Amino acid sequence: MADINIQRKKSAPSPWILVLLAAIVLAAAAYFFLRPNPADETAPAATTAQEGIVDTAVTATSTQLAIDSATAAPDRNSTSSVGESETAASLATQASSDPSAPDYALNGLQKLTGVLVALADRDDLRDPTVIEQRDNLTSATNRLGEPNAGLRAGFVAAASLIRAMQQKAYPELGDVADDLVRQANQLSGRSATAAEQQQNKQFLAQAADAVRVLSEPAK
User: Fold this and answer.
1) Residue 44 sits in which domain range?
2) Were both Cys, which of 18, 30, 34, 108 would link to 204 (CB 3.0–4.6 Å)?
């Protein structure tokens, strides 16, 4: 009778062991991949230090610029008379030139506006009425460079500003200022005819004389 070899069947490993091993592998992988990098931890400190250095440099530069500006800025009252005198002379030169020349009236009004705006900022002339008339003048002349720009409104505003400054500190210029306002209202703002050219010349010449007086200290 033949012998029958009977072997015991090996038991399969428990599935829980496989689950446990998989969890251990995942935990190890998560630890290695998700742990913070030491190099990343030191970066903010270095960045903060660099920002502090930059802020300090910017502050020092701003302070130095403020000091330089204060040192370089001239005293307005000590230099205004020189600039106004030169502009008054330039206005007188323009007024005495050929009124039939191209842009004679435009150049004269621009020079007149420049000197009057500077005078209006002088301490002894500045008051609400003068400031209002100055703003009216700059508003009327801020587009003089455009083609076909009207000049009459600028002449009227300039004469009104002269009268406001005269009333503030120069009573002796009363008749001159009133006459300038009258002439300005009669100007056409053009230079097409010989009569218009002569009217522009007369107004600018008289305005230059008034500006010369206004540029001197009030008595």
Assistant:
1) 15-66
2) 108
Convert 7-40 to b/e letters by CB count within 10 Å (16 or more is b).
eeeeeeeeeeeeeeeeeeeeeeeeeeeeeeeeee
Contacts 24+ apart (CB under 8 A), 61-66: none
Residues with Cβ within 8 Å of 154's Cβ and at least 6 positions away in sequence, in order, are: 109, 113, 137, 140, 141, 144, 189
User: What gap in Å lies between CA 82 and CA 137, rounded to an integer?
Assistant: 23
Percent above pLDDT 70 for the chain: 68
At which residue do the structure tokens 């009104």 appear? 160
pLDDT in tens, 69-81: 444 433 333 333 3
Query: Rounded to an integer, what distance in angstroms lies between the CA atom of residue 87 and that of residue 82?
Result: 9
Could you tell me if residue 163 is inside a domain?
A: yes
Per the structure, how many domains does the chain have? 2
Angle at 155 between CA 108 and CA 171, to 5 degrees: 100
pTM value surpassing 0.85: no
Q: What is the pLDDT of residues 195-205, one digit of tens each?
A: 999 999 999 99
Same domain membership, residue 192 and residue 87: yes
Question: How far from the centroid of its chain's Cα atoms is residue 132's Cα?
Answer: 21
**Cβ atoms of 163 and 180 closer than 8 Å:** yes
Q: Same structural domain for residues 25 and 85?
A: no
105 band by pLDDT with thresholds 50, 70 and 90: very high
Angle at 53 between CA 65 and CA 60, to 5 degrees: 15
